[in-house]
């Protein structure tokens, strides 16, 4: 059913009444003049009628002007009030009623409607401003990058994280999204979400202008709909950075592969030699049994060392507490030297710092791994120096230095990774587990310190373990 148009009935009746009153008054003036002055003025009846008519019309015109003024003054006040609605905040004083119920026509209803509209507009404007401020704060505080585009593929909005990620400059709103994003997989995800009108999740890659490399993201795109008719007018995407998760997954896969290989190699050797021993015993051949069992024992020890190192590494990474105390640097050094055979190398020690605040067992583990590595890779007859020094007032440092072949620069950044080896075949042949230096790094870091490597190919290597010294006066 079609809505009926509003008709200002009261204003119409009021105007009609005023018009009728003016016409009636005109006729009364003309009639009165004709009756009262016709016999007293020396002019023809027609001329007198015209004069009376002119006077009546002039009187009616004055009355009409007064009527129009009475009609238009309220209209002017309403126009001024309507203009004030465009200002923010809406002036509450202008919201006071300018008309009374006895004002002509529907001016009172119109005035009241404008006041209600102004007050509603004020509330909605304040609410919209508050929601806009909250939305900006939320967008700025979100750690993920956010980008919204329109159906025409123009930029609607983006947050500071997105601007930082893509090195976006100010003033790109309403610009084509292709001017800041050129990755086909990202644009394709937005296009598909706009096309089907559903949320989508895809893994994408973006070039990071800050590092020059690529970063991996889980892109979640959802269509933007108008509230009143659910018409899609754009799409918003949130970029969840999963680069570190990808790296962790890659490390996990490599770790599982390395552990499997490290376990399989000695187990295969143990299985093969045990089968040979069983066959020799069955054939009553005992000449090589002791040699084969010695090889089995060495592989068992290698497996035991690998498992122990893995358990230690797991405990350190899970945050298991260490138990630091003031320990003698000379005592822990001499203990390790006695435990590790080193007769084929020249070993020198010095103790500028007599004590270090650390866990005795963990520090001996650090020194043992560094010392064994030096013995394993430094040729016979070369030198190994172990020294404890004070670096300023806040650190006690363990130095393990050699004059061996040194380490190439390309290996140094990855040397402390689990199962990373410079010379893989030699390390396995010499019984290394591949996680000794990684274990050293974690132990030093759990003490609040750091490890440093100084090495040049052909000029030897020096490992420096920095331990915090909470009481420098005791060093």
Describe what this molecule looks like in 3D.
The model is unreliable at 425-429 (pLDDT under 50). With 475 residues, the chain is an alpha+beta fold. Helix 2 runs parallel beside helix 3 (107-141), helix 8 (329-339) packs across helix 9 and helix 9 (360-377) packs antiparallel against helix 12 (436-446). The protein is built from 12 helices and 12 strands. The chain has helices at 9-37, 45-84, 107-141, 160-166, 184-196, 243-282, 289-317, 329-339, 360-377, 409-412, 424-429, 436-446, and strands at 145-150, 155-158, 200-207, 214-225, 232-241, 325-328, 346-351, 355-358, 383-391, 395-402, 450-455, 461-468. A hairpin with a 3-residue loop joins strand 9 (383-391) and strand 10. The termini are far apart. The protein has 4 domains: 9-120, no CATH class; 142-241, 2-Layer Sandwich (Beta-Lactamase), CATH 3.30.450.20; 250-317, Signal transduction histidine kinase, dimerisation/phosphotransfer (DHp) domain (Helix Hairpins, Orthogonal Bundle), CATH 1.10.287.130; 325-474, Heat Shock Protein 90, CATH 3.30.565.10.
Key words describing this protein structure:
single chain, 475 residues, alpha+beta, Beta-Lactamase, Helix Hairpins, 4 domains, 5-stranded antiparallel beta sheet, 5-stranded mixed beta sheet, 12 helices, 12 strands, 51% helix, 18% strand
Sequence-ordered SSE layout with sheet pairings:
Elements: H1 9-37, H2 45-84, H3 107-141, E1 145-150, E2 155-158, H4 160-166, H5 184-196, E3 200-207, E4 214-225, E5 232-241, H6 243-282, H7 289-317, E6 325-328, H8 329-339, E7 346-351, E8 355-358, H9 360-377, E9 383-391, E10 395-402, H10 409-412, H11 424-429, H12 436-446, E11 450-455, E12 461-468
Parallel strand pairs: 7-9
Antiparallel strand pairs: 1-2, 1-5, 3-4, 4-5, 6-8, 9-10, 10-12, 11-12
Helix pairs in contact: 1-2, 2-3, 6-7, 7-12, 8-9, 9-12
């Amino acid at each position: 059913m079609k809505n009926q148009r509003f008709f200002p009935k009261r204003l119409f009746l009021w105007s009609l009444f005023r018009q009728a009153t003016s016409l009636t008054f005109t006729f009364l003036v003309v009639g009165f003049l004709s009756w009262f002055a016709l016999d007293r003025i020396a002019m023809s009846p027609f001329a007198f009628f015209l004069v009376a008519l002119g006077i009546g019309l002039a009187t009616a015109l004055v009355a009409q002007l007064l009527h129009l003024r009475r009609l238009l003054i309220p209209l002017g006040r309403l126009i001024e009030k309507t203009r004030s609605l465009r200002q923010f905040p809406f002036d509450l004083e202008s919201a006071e009623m300018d008309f009374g119920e006895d004002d002509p026509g529907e001016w009172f209803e119109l005035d009241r409607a404008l006041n209600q509209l102004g007050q509603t507009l004020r509330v909605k404007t304040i609410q919209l401003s508050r929601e806009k401020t909250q939305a900006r704060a939320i967008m700025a505080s979100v750690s993920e990058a956010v980008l919204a585009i329109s159906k025409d593929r123009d930029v609607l909005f983006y947050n500071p994280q997105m601007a930082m990620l893509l090195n976006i400059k100010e003033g790109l709103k309403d610009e084509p999204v292709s001017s800041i994003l050129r990755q086909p997989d990202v644009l394709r995800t937005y296009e598909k979400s706009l096309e089907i009108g559903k949320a989508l999740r895809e893994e994408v890659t973006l070039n990071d202008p800050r590092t020059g490399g690529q970063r991996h993201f889980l892109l979640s795109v959802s269509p933007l709909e108008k509230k009143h008719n659910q018409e899609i007018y754009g799409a918003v995407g949130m970029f969840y950075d999963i680069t570190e998760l990808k790296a962790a997954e890659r490390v996990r896969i490599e770790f599982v592969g390395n552990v499997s290989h490290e376990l399989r190699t000695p187990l295969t050797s143990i299985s093969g030699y045990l089968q040979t021993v069983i066959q020799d015993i069955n054939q009553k051949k005992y000449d090589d049994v002791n040699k084969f069992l010695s090889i089995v024992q060495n592989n068992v020890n290698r497996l035991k060392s690998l498992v122990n190192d893995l358990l230690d590494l797991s405990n350190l990474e899970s945050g298991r507490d260490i138990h630091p105390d003031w320990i003698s640097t000379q005592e822990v050094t001499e203990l390790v030297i006695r435990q590790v055979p080193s007769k084929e190398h020249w070993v020198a020690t010095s103790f500028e710092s007599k004590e270090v605040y650390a866990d005795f067992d963990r520090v001996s583990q650090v020194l043992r791994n560094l010392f064994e590595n030096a013995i394993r890779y430094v040729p016979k007859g070369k030198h190994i120096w172990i020294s404890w020094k004070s670096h300023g007032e806040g650190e006690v440092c363990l130095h393990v230095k050699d004059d061996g072949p040194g380490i190439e620069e390309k290996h140094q950044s990855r040397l402390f990774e689990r199962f990373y080896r410079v010379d893989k075949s030699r390390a396995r042949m010499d019984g290394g587990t591949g996680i000794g230096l990684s274990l050293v790094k974690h132990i030093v870091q759990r003490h609040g310190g750091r490890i440093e490597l100084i090495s040049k190919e052909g000029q030897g290597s020096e490992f420096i373990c920095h331990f915090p010294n909470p009481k420098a006066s005791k060093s």
